Each structure stands twice: as C-alpha cells, then as structure tokens.
Amino acid sequence: MRRFVLWGILSAALSLAAGCSVIAKVAFGIDEIKEYREDKVQSFLAESQRRVPCNQIIATTEQQDSLIRLDCDTSMMQHRAQPVQILYFDGDSLVFYHINCYTQSGLLSYDWNNKGSFGHFPPSPTVVPDWHGRMTLEAYRRSLPGLHSESRYTVLILWSNMLRKVSAQAVKAVAANVSGREDCTVWLVNTDHWWVDYMHRQ
Fold first, then answer.
1. Cα separation of 60 and 175, whole Å?
2. Pairwise CA distance, residues 31 & 172, whole Å
3. 46-84 per-position pLDDT tens digit
4. How many other C-beta atoms lie within 10 A of the C-beta of residue 37?
5. CA-CA distance, 32 to 35, in Å (whole number)?
6. Residue 156's beta-bridge partner residues?
7. Helix, strand, coil content of the chain in percent (nearest 5)
8. Among 4, 36, 56, 104, which residue's CB has the most CB atoms within a 10 Å radius?
9. H-only helix segments in the chain
10. Tens of pLDDT along 171-193?
C-alpha cells in the first residue's frame, strides 16, 4: 500500500502546470537526483539570500514523511509531496498555500503569480489547502524542530534540487511579495533527502 501511494505521489510531483500535465525535463530543469549534494543546497541558499533574508532547514526523510502524512487524505498527501511548495502562516493559521502543480507554465519558466495571487500581502489563496485544519505552523514545527519565528507571518518554501529552477522562481515570487516587510520570517525547507531515498527505493 505504501509503495502504491508513493508511486502516485511521485507521478503527481513530476506533473506540473495547469491540469498537472507532464512537461519536458529539459525545459523545466527536472533532475532525478541520485545523491544529496550539500554544495548545491548551500549555493541555492546563498542565491536565495541575495533576493530575500531567509533561514534554511534541511529536512530528513523522516521529517518530510511526517509532513506528507499530516492526515490520511491521499489527495492532500500528493499536494504535500510536491517538490516546490509555498506556505504563508498568520500566527499559527495557514492563510496561503501554493504548489508547483498549480502554477502557469510558459516556454521555459513558471509564473507563480499567474492568478495575481502575489499582487497583495498575504497572497490570495489559489488552492483550498486543508479540509481538516491540520496544516498549522505548530504541526510543521513538530515535524521540523529547528523551525521558529517571532514574526506575525511565517513563510515556508519547500524546495528540491530536483526542480531547482522552479524553486528559484518560487523564491523570486516570495521575495517580491515580502519586500520591505518587517513582520515576516522566510524559511527554506530543502527536501532532497526524501527524494534521494525515494529514488533509491525504486
């Protein structure tokens, strides 16, 4: 059963854009990563920090598993397994949730603001994120013990080198949205360990 669910998650994770249709690897930089590369993770952090002040957590496979399985709803598990996710919390409450699967794809890029969501702060919802109310900041803190924030707003960007280009575009969208704000803390959460382990299990 676990293997079946994870196959479905991977299929969904590699399906992007409107309607989640399958896209070309070369165009969007999909890299079936086979090992964790600390140098690549740190270079992405450095690139991101040039755009927006941010902290980083490198999630273990077990931590990412716990995030995916916040509840047993298979559709939500597929959402939470996406390689690139953006979450905004106001206090403990999730107020915005966006994933790579629902961005608008162009020839060689993604438009995370395709519905004008990032035109104001916090962005307007594009996905109904959680029917069960379990995607709270506290739930993410339990899975990611290093996560902390004293700000009113906390932004999480889950990313992977499997979709480095799309991840960078997500950071760019968030950076523009939070520019000039002092009530917001941004965290990058790298999930490469989960994807490497998944590939090795096949």
1. 26
2. 20
3. 999 999 999 999 999 999 999 988 866 676 777 888 899
4. 13
5. 9
6. 87, 187
7. 40, 20, 40
8. 56
9. 2-13, 25-28, 38-49, 61-68, 74-80, 137-143, 164-178, 192-201
10. 999 999 999 999 999 999 999 99
